[in-house]
Amino acid sequence: MTAMNAMNASNESSAERERGTRPVVLDVRDLSVSYGKVEALHHIDLKIRRGEIVTVIGPNGAGKTTLLAALMGLLPAQGEIVYLGERQGAERQVEQLVRQGMTLVPEKRELFGEMSVEDNLLLGAFDRYRGGHRDELETMDQVFEIFPRLAERREQLAGTLSGGERQMLAMGRALMAKPKLLMLDEPSLGLAPLIIKEIFRIVAELKKTGVAILLVEQNARAALQVADYGYVLETGEVSLEGPSAELASDPRVIESYLGLGGKGGAAAR
User: How many C-beta atoms lie closer than 10 Å to residue 188's C-beta?
Assistant: First the structure.
């Protein structure tokens, strides 16, 4: 082993040791999801720790969005889901998970186009408000610090925003709930390259706040660059996992998802 290889191995092992000391936010064990008699996810194990970004990449139809829906309580699932140290029962409800700090930004963003940016953000704080918290204006100021463009358009109707601005608003609305786990479904979908770069810069900054981020992303190269750890999902099963830097240099990932030009297999769902 060369000195450089030894140094890289030492850096990777120390990074893994540091990762192991962080509190686990979500621990998924043996998760399976079926549509009727067709099993879409098979025995998935996945772990996310506080203040880290975990990405899931994979080809079309691999089950990535199904995974997010199951975690969010939108689909019935078998297996074990432990969130914030508590095992989640099969009867868990979306509203309950949101109150516990789990949020999902769906691919379609699902904004209220006839409402202003500010009102869309306030809706993101509704569950906290209903629970007795009255810090929505302070939280909105924090969101505007992260997304200055939204502050400039706070009175503008959401339906008149650009694609990148709508994605920022969807993320900002999720942050209004002060999540402990933020799940992002294809945040770069349909966006221009410069906007994609900005979105991923913001995602990288968000983990400094301590929030755990589960990122499902069509742009495998960008996802692995920003993530700490990654999973490759193929035909409903995890085929590879590891630190994102290792996955990005794995010949199987390069051939299937990165390609020589960075576009080949840019894993869509």
Answer: 23
